[in-house]
Structures are given as C-alpha cells and as structure tokens.
Specification:
The complex is a heterodimer of chains A (386) and B (562). Chain A is an alpha/beta fold and 386 residues long. Chain A has 2 domains: 20-153, Arc Repressor Mutant, subunit A (Orthogonal Bundle), CATH 1.10.10.10; 158-381, 3-Layer(aba) Sandwich (Dna Topoisomerase Vi A Subunit, Chain: A, domain 2), CATH 3.40.1360.10. The two termini of chain A are 26 Å apart. In chain A, helix 3 crosses helix 4. In chain A, a hairpin with a 4-residue loop joins strand 2 and strand 3 (64-67). Chain A has helices at 20-39, 82-100, 107-114, 129-143, 208-216, 219-223, 236-249, 261-272, 281-284, 296-301, 324-334, 341-353, 369-380, and strands at residues 45-49, 56-59, 64-67, 71-75, 105-106, 152-153, 159-161, 164-168, 171-174, 183-184, 193-197, 201-205, 225-229, 253-256, 290-293, 309-310, 355-356. By secondary structure, chain B is α+β, with helices and mostly antiparallel strands. Chain B folds into 3 domains: 16-218, Heat Shock Protein 90; 241-348, no CATH class; 362-561, Ribosomal Protein S5, domain 2, CATH 3.30.230. Chain B contains 17 helices and 14 strands. In chain B, the strands form 2 sheets. An 8-stranded mixed sheet of chain B has the order 5-4-3-6-2-1-7-8. In chain B, strand 4 and strand 5 form a beta hairpin. Chain B is flat, with a radius of gyration of 31 Å. The chains are: A alpha/beta (386), B alpha+beta (562). The interface between A and B is medium-sized, with 30 and 22 residues.
C-alpha cells in the first residue's frame, strides 16, 4: 500500500510505442524521394529543421522547450552541401542495416563503421566523429525519430534501483534485486518493457553518492520509491526512462539535486528539455516533475548553515560581476519555467546568501538523516517546488 | 704648311668614310653585338621590302659564319625579285641615294643608307668587298664583288662573273665579311632581332644558321603578302617652311593655288580662300603695336574668328586682295618669306585629319598569326587602333599584340616596333615602355606582371616616327602616341581578362563538377541500401544529372559571352 499522501501514481498517458518498422519505412521513404528527384532531373535535397537557439522556443501550454519550424535545405548539387548530403545518406543506410538486423551501435562505432576513403580521392567520408554525430542529430530532427530508435546509443550513464520489473530483450529482472549498485540504464531504453511497477514515485538523484546512501538506508523499500541516479546531467537514456516511467506508468517524478545552479539546471532539463535536444522534448522532457531539494530554505530549516559553500564567481553588485555561479543563477532566473514565485524566491535567496549546498551536506546531521527525515518529511508533506 | 689643293684633296677622300665613322652610332654601328645586328637588319629589311614590292612571299636565310676572333662572314639570301645587273652598284654603293628618302611614305629603312652602310662597314672593318649573287630569274646569275669608292661615293664592282641559271633561280644572296663584331644570343643580337622580325612579318619565312651550325627556323604563318605602302601628300599641319619652299620649286603646277591644292592633302580651293584671310589677318596683327591687343588677336585667330579679326582693322580688304594675288603667281616665284607665312597660317587653320592610306599596319589578324607562330602561346589577341594625328598633322597608328601562356616563359616581355622594325635598344626611355608600365595590369587579372607569362608587342606606325636621339631605337614620349598605346593595350588586356576569367571559371567548374562526382559512388551505395534499386543505375542517374546541369551552365555562359 502506498504510504505517501502527497505523491501518488497516476494513470498512464502514453503507451509503449517503439516500432522498428516505423524507422525503416521512414528511411525508405526519404531514400525513394531522393531517387525520384534525381530521376526527374531535380536537385535532390533534405529538409532539416535548424538547430540552435534561433529555432527554439518555450511552449507555454505544454511547458517544454520545443523546436521551431525553421528548416535548412540540404541539396546534393551545392558545393557547400554535397558532402553532408552524402554523409546523411551514408548514415541513413547504416541505420537501416542496424535496425533491420536488430543491432545497436554506439556513436563512435557508427563513426568508424562509416569512415572510409572515397575511392579515387584522398578524402574520407568522415574525418572525425564531430562530423558523424551532428548528422545523426540531423536525422533525428528530420525524421522525428529518436537516435535510440535508430539503434544508435551514447555511453551509458545513470542507474536505477527499486521494485520494478523490466524486460530487456530476453531478460526480465527486478531492479531492486540486482545488488546495491542497481541496474545501469543503457544508452537505449526504447525496447524496454515495464512488466511490473510496484513503486509510488521515482526519485531522481543527482549524485551517485547520494543514491548509494539512500539504497543503503533502504529508502526505496521503506518509501516505496524508485531511485534514479543521473550521475550529473541526466543522459538521454535516463531522461527518456524518466519520461516513459511518468507517462507510461504514471509515476510522479521528484528530483533531488544539489542546491546550486548546476543542480537546478539538471532539474530544468529533466523537466523542460534542453535547447540542444529541443526537438526531442516531447520524448525526453517531463514537465510534471517536481523538485524536492536542496533548497535555500533547507539551510535554515535544518540548520545547515555551517555546511554551505560559497558560490563561485563575482556577485552582480561587485565590480566585474556577475560571473560564475552568480551569472548562471541570473540566467536561470530568466528561464520561462522558473517564472514563478517559489523559484524566483529560491534563486534570489541564493544570490543574497551567496552560498550553495550539496546533497551530501545532509550527512552533517547523520548518515540516516536524509533517508529517515529529510526526504520523507518533504515528500509526504508535499513540500515540493514546481 | 701643306698646299691648299693638297689639303682639299685629302679632305675629299676622307669625307664619306669620315662622316660614316663619326656617325656610326647614328646608323646603328656601335658596339660589337649591335653592329652585327645592324648589318643583318639592313640586308633583311631590303629583302623584305623588295619581296613586298614584288608581291613575293619572302624566304630569307641568314647565316653567320665565324672566321676568327670577332671576325664573321654574314650571308643573307632571299627569294626576292633580284637586282638587275646595272643597278647593283647603285643599290650597294651609293649612300644617301635610296628611293625612299624624301618620299612621304612609311618605310622600314630610313635614309637609304641601309645596305650600302653595311657594305661600307664590311669594307672598313675587314677590307673585303661584298659578294653579291643575284638573278631576276632570267637565264643568268650574276656574281659580283662590290666595294664603295669613297671618293666618288659610288659602288664599284671589283670582280664580276656570270653563271648560267638552268633552274631559273631568282633572288639575291649577299656575303659580307665583317670584323670587330661579336655574335651573342642576347636580346640585342641577331637571333632576337630575327625572332622579333618574324613576329611582325608573319608572311616571311626566316631562317638563321648560327656560327655553331645550329639552324633556327621562324616559319611563315601567313600566306598574305602585305601591300606596299603608298605615297601620301603631306598634310598642311605637318610641313615646315623648307618643305613648302622646296616643293614649290619642284612642282609643275602653274599657280601657288594649284600647287597648294594639288600637292597637299586636305587643301581645297575653299581652304586656299581661307588661307588668304588667315595670312592677311596675320600680316595685320603684326602691324599692331600694343602687345596685349596683339596677343588677344592671335588668340581669337586661333579660335577661328578670322573674319572678326580682319574687320577690326581698317582697310583690311586691301591686304586680303594683296594676299589673294600671291595665290595666283607661279609657285617657283614663291619666296621663303611667303612660304613661312603660309606655314604659319596653317598652324591657325583647321584641317581634316590627314589621310592614312599610306600607313601600313601589320593588322590584328597577322599580329595574332605572328605571335602564335613564333611564341606558341595559349592565348593571343591583337588590337589595331584607327589612325590618329600627333603634333597637329602627322598621322600615326598604334597596334599591339598580347600573347599569354603556352610556351611563353614567365616574366613580362615587351617587343617594340616602329614601322614593323624591331627596336632593340634604349627600351627604358621608349614611350612604349612607359605606356606598358603605366597600365594597372591587376585590373586585367594579371596579378604580378613581372611573373606573368606575357608578351606584349607594340608597333608604332607613322610616316615620321618621333625617335629620341639618333639611334632610332626609342620612340619619344609624345602625349598623343602614349595615349593611343595605352588605349590599345587596355583594349587587348580586356580581351586577355575575359580569357583569363573564363579560364578560371572553367577550372572552377571542373573542380565543382568533380566535387559532386566523387560523392556519387558513395551516394549510390547508400541509396541502393535504402531503396533496393541497383547501385549502378542510381549512379547513372546522378552522373547524367550532373552532366546535364553543367552542359546547361556552359550553354548559358556561351550565350552570355556572345
């Protein structure tokens, strides 16, 4: 039985939707269109949504960062485009083979697999991974298909621990029965199926050290929570997993980071998405996520003043300021999704106090403090920031 | 003290050779290298002129044989009309007695000293007679050894032989033995001279056998013999008092009026009436005491207000009548004074530009042929400007040729000509050099002139080329001539620019095309994976698309340039 009152599991809003045939048919469709153009004596091209700040906006209604509709057209018969046009097709063909053979490749593997010298020249198809990675991003945006759906994975980062049963290919396991280290989140989570979900909510934890602490204190079992360790900025796999758990399983998402600009930014990307991956916000962002801490209020409330650290950089009222942390805070205050009383208050307090506070600072009270008192108190009382 | 008659005799003996020695520089016999070139020049020029006048495509062969230290035999043979026996002494022996002096005509040679000067040079350096072998194509070949009798300024045949001519050979071969000269393959030497001559005379086949036996051929590249120049009547703006005075003496016309209308170009009866008014006005102005007023009157006259000037004098009609009478007297009665008045009046009058039919440009087509044939460039162009006038009445014409790339080594080369004759010396002070250097070559896509594979040839044509100094190797910086040269160069340079930018564009297109083509195999492979169509077919689609694209682009360019 769920213990918490404030945080409740909701009804699922999305269904598991991964379909390799969708990717394959899209690839074929684009390929056929290029072929048709060239047969008709037209200059073939790809329309690729533009990247960068200029083509990103905040969708107020859905409360996520989204990509605009500015397109850049990549032609074959254009000296400046021809190489990228060729690279795009190369990666597309590669993805087709990966998906149809049900194999996965890392970005680095994709780079090496497609790198070779063009016959009769001294030129390579790809000179650097910095050439192939953007092409893959282009494809994601162009086809509206996730890199993971194209079986292209990044390095894995982050892990989960809690009473849920996952089917990953032929394996089925409970992530609370894999030892204290939990289950490492793979680069691609598309193919995962959630067989059983016996938790009330997911607690996203910034640092591995804090996640380990909570597992050791048996917090997941006691609070009926799923621990998701992001290990710094959340990887795409982790963000996608959070998104899926929230929308497919109705799990409330609560984020627990350091009380500093970087922690708040991690929260911001989980919640609203990022500028870089704005085109994926619909699949990666979880606008309903809430923030448990650390907050500036915690410092006074739990008497943590002596375990705070000074913010880095020069404050805005000092000569040469603002820089470093101060500057980041001021930038975050401008974010549309931080335009609410609670967050503005937190951010102002941080500026005024000139301090930051880490999750681990709670250990100053006692090792059990965070698991036994801090988190249960705040979560069950619903003392969360939007 | 020697007797006067003795002195006089010695003086007389030395006169011509003394003059010649003293003026060797003026005739081109200065320096060991240049002297040899001058000998060859005189002979080759004679050959070319003779062929042209006879309408024969010239074949000229020059052979330089080394006999000893600074001692050479120079042999020049042509296929010209040949020299009739009785003219041999005349051609080779008389100085200052050519057919061209005092004719208002464009010519290669100048004072008719030419070949006799060479004979004289051979004689005074080696002591040898010049051997002449010639035939007009009849049944005999004449072989004669010619010397110049300096006493009488006359050619003298030392020895003569006649040979049968069974094959009907026609032409002239002369052999001169010269000392105190040197054969060097330098820019002032025979080789370079003949090369330049060949460029400006594409209708001539020229061969050179160097002292070491090496045969060099400058082949003919045009089959068209240039028409010989025609004589032109002098233009009133280009004559001196002396010309008018002497011409009046010689003419067979009955009155000064007839003489002026008949012997000058651009003078009509109406112009003579005008001339009468101008002379009258000038006479009257000279009577004016006030210098300031006089100045003003001259100015007004220059503006053409001759009638107003006349009317400002009381009783001017009397003076006009007096002058009018002058026009009706026999020309041989014309005084120096009167000739002077006429020439002065000419300066104030307006005349049509002089006729230019006497000028004989090489022609754009032939310049291109000459440059192409000798230099083997990748690009050649030529510009012949319409005739212009300098100093108020001397017609001249400028033509330039530009050759670029191909076998031309890098480094700018200027080939200068006056009336088709190569100028080998004094390049620095020549108006052609100044004009060529004053061009902003960068504007014409020639980024570094001194490293460009570029040959510029300039030919200045005139009945009277204004040379600097007596060497006749450098053209004076006359503003009108410089402007014409500049315009001609710029015109030619524009064509070069079009060529160069077209070439750059074509290179760029090829490069572009390659950019696309190199990706085709990759694209075809990938598209084949994506669509299942055979790779080979896809490749064909792309290649034919690229081809049609560039073909369309080329067609567009052609129509733009047309």
């Amino acid at each position: 039985m769920p213990k918490s009152k404030a945080v409740k599991r909701e009804k699922p809003r999305e269904r598991f939707s991964y379909d390799p045939n969708k990717v394959l048919s899209k690839l074929e469709e684009y390929g056929r269109r290029v072929l048709e153009d060239i047969k008709q004596g037209r200059n073939p091209y790809f329309d690729i949504p533009m990247r960068g700040l200029g083509n990103v906006y905040f969708d107020e209604r859905r409360r996520v960062i989204r990509m605009g509709d500015k397109l850049s057209r990549r032609y074959f018969l254009n000296v400046a485009h021809a190489r990228k046009f060729m690279q795009t097709l190369l990666i597309m063909a590669y993805v087709k083979r990966l998906v149809s053979e049900n194999k996965h490749a890392s970005l680095r593997e994709a780079y090496y697999a497609n790198k070779h010298t063009i016959p009769g020249t001294k030129e390579n198809t790809f000179e650097d991974q910095r050439e192939s990675d953007p092409i893959i991003e282009d494809l994601e945006r162009m086809m509206g298909v996730l890199r993971e759906e194209m079986h292209l994975t990044a390095d894995r980062r982050g892990y989960i621990y809690g009473d849920i049963v996952i089917r990953d290919g032929e394996d089925e396991f409970n992530t609370s029965k894999l030892g204290m280290g939990g289950w490492a989140v793979p680069g691609t989570v598309e193919h995962l199926q959630f067989v059983e979900v016996n938790v009330d909510y997911a607690l996203v934890v910034e640092t591995a050290a804090m996640a380990d602490r909570l597992i050791e204190e048996k917090f997941p079992r006691k609070e009926n929570a799923l621990i998701i360790a992001t290990q710094g900025q959340a990887s795409r796999g982790v963000r996608r997993l959070i998104h899926r758990l929230h929308y497919e399983e109705g799990l409330p998402i609560i984020v627990f980071t350091d009380g500093d600009p970087y922690g708040w930014y991690i929260y911001s990307t989980i919640k609203q998405g990022s500028i870089n991956l704005a085109y994926l916000s619909d699949k990666l962002a979880t606008p309903e996520a809430k923030f448990v801490g650390m907050t500036m209020d915690d410092i006074e409330r739990y008497g943590l003043k002596n375990v705070t650290e000074k913010l880095k950089g020069i404050p805005p009222n000092k000569k040469g300021g603002p820089t470093g942390d101060y500057k980041r805070i001021l930038e975050e205050m401008e974010y549309p999704w931080f335009q609410n009383k609670e967050w503005q208050r937190q951010l102002k307090m941080a500026l005024k106090m000139g301090v930051r506070i880490e999750q681990q600072a709670l250990a100053n009270k006692s090792l059990e403090f965070v698991a036994k008192k801090y988190l249960p108190e705040k979560i069950n009382n619903g003392e969360l920031l939007p | 003290m020697a007797e006067a008659s003795q002195l006089f005799k010695e003086f007389k003996i030395q006169s011509v050779s003394e003059f010649f020695r003293r003026n060797a520089a003026m005739l081109g016999y200065t320096g060991k290298i240049r002297s040899l070139t001058t000998v060859v020049h005189e002979a080759v020029t004679n050959s070319l002129d003779a062929c042209e006048e006879a309408g024969i495509l010239p074949y000229v062969r020059v052979e330089i044989e080394e006999l000893g230290k600074e001692h050479y035999k120079v042999i020049i043979e042509d296929n010209g009309p040949g020299i009739p026996e009785k003219y041999i002494t005349h051609v080779f022996g008389k100085m200052l007695a050519g057919t061209k002096a005092h004719r208002n005509i464009q010519s290669r040679g100048q004072q008719g000293i030419g070949i006799s000067g060479a004979v004289m040079f051979a004689q005074i350096t080696s002591g040898k007679a010049t051997r002449v072998i010639t035939s007009t194509g009849n049944d005999e070949i004449i072989e004669a050894w010619v010397k110049i009798d300096v006493d009488k300024n006359e050619g003298k045949i030392v020895k003569k032989e006649k040979h049968p001519n069974p094959k009907g050979w026609r032409g002239t071969r002369i052999e001169l033995e010269v000392k105190n000269v040197r054969y060097v393959r330098s820019k002032q030497g025979v080789y370079w001279y003949l090369k330049l001559t060949a460029i400006a005379n594409p209708h001539a086949h020229i061969e050179l056998i160097e002292p070491d036996g090496k045969l060099i051929v400058f082949p003919r590249s045009s089959e068209e013999v240039p028409k010989p120049p025609t004589e032109m009547k002098p233009h009133p703006r280009g004559v001196l008092t002396d010309d008018v005075y002497r011409m009046a003496r010689k003419t067979r016309r009955s009155t000064v009026r007839r003489f002026l209308v008949g012997e000058f170009s651009r003078i009509s009866d109406k112009k003579v009436d005008e001339l009468v008014e101008y002379i009258a006005a000038l006479r009257l102005i000279k009577t004016e005491k006030d210098k300031k007023v006089q100045e003003q009157l001259y100015e007004r006259l220059a503006k053409g207000e001759v009638k107003a000037v006349l009317r400002s004098f009381r009783g001017y009609t009397k003076v006009v009548k007096q002058v009018a009478k002058l026009m009706e007297k026999p020309p041989e009665k014309l005084t120096w004074q009167e000739a002077e008045e006429i020439v002065e009046a000419f300066k104030y009058m307006k005349f049509l530009a002089p006729p230019t039919h006497g000028l004989r440009p090489i022609g754009e087509e032939n310049i291109e042929k000459g440059l192409k044939g000798i230099l083997k460039p990748e690009f050649v162009t030529a510009v012949t400007r319409p005739p212009k006038v300098y100093s108020g009445g001397i017609p001249f014409q400028v033509e330039v040729g530009l050759a670029y790339g191909g076998e031309i080594p890098s480094g700018f080369e200027l080939l200068r000509y006056a009336n088709r004759v190569p100028l080998l010396f004094d390049a620095g002070s020549c108006v052609t050099t100044l004009a060529a250097r004053s061009i902003d070559w960068k504007r014409y896509k020639v980024d570094d002139l001194d490293r460009a594979p570029l040959v510029l040839m300039i030919n200045v044509i005139s009945v009277h080329v204004p040379y600097t100094g007596t060497g006749k190797q450098s053209i004076a910086n006359v503003e009108e001539i410089q402007n014409e040269i500049r315009l001609a160069i710029m015109d030619a340079a524009r064509k070069l620019q079009t060529y160069l930018s077209g070439k750059h564009r074509r290179l760029y297109q090829v490069k572009r095309r390659k950019t696309f083509e190199k990706y085709v195999p990759e694209i075809a492979k990938a598209l084949s994976v994506l669509t299942g169509e055979p790779e080979e077919k896809i490749r064909e689609y792309f290649i034919s698309y690229i081809e049609s694209h560039f073909a369309a682009k080329e067609a567009q360019e052609v129509s733009e340039n047309a």
